[in-house]
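User: quick one, sequence for these tokens?
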């Protein structure tokens, strides 16, 4: 039975490794790239290589940056005493699009998940405690979803941050039980942030 040439099959296989891309989507993307002008494909390849070479985690908060510090950490108008902890760097953009948060962020790099081998040592918890001390944080917002991993991580961080005497809050109503932030629209997330609740210690 005839099939695509080996080079095309390798392209499809590579595209299938991208999140959210199934076999049919990978095939359609591959066909689009193969039928596009050579310059368009070269532009895409160059953009990917350039992004990989230039974008790195901000050493202070963990968000995306092309400089020594990201745009948010360089902003002197931000409230350093207000810290929002998120799972991954894209979550920062979810909060920024709400337009209601003017503090700083800390990207944890994941959530606690013992079944997946992710414990406290795999996350940026020491740097979180260090930046909370350095900035004399008055409030730490645990900006996670309400699934099991988010709840477990929130409880653990609340215990770790307790000695600092900082106010610890979680997102309020609007975030459906058991959901992650990637499924929450910006208006709902903004309301959940504005009406956040304190965590019991």
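Assistant:
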């Amino acid at each position: 039975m005839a099939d695509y040439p080996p080079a095309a099959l390798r392209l499809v296989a590579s595209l299938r490794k991208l999140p959210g891309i199934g076999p049919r989507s990978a095939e359609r993307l591959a066909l689009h790239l193969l039928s596009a002008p050579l310059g368009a494909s070269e532009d895409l390849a160059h953009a990917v290589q350039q992004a990989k070479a230039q974008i790195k985690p901000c050493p202070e908060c963990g968000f995306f940056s092309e400089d020594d510090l990201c745009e948010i950490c360089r902003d002197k108008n931000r409230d350093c005493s207000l810290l929002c902890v998120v799972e991954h760097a894209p979550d920062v953009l979810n909060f920024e699009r709400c337009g209601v948060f003017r503090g700083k962020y800390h990207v944890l790099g994941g959530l606690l998940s013992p079944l997946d081998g992710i414990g406290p040592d795999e996350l940026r918890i020491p740097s979180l405690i260090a930046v909370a001390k350095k900035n004399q944080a008055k409030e730490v917002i645990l900006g996670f979803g309400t699934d099991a991993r988010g709840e477990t991580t929130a409880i653990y961080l609340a215990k770790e941050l307790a000695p600092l005497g900082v106010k610890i809050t979680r997102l309020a109503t609007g975030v459906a039980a058991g959901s992650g932030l990637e499924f929450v629209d910006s208006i709902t997330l903004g309301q959940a942030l504005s009406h956040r609740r304190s965590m019991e210690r």
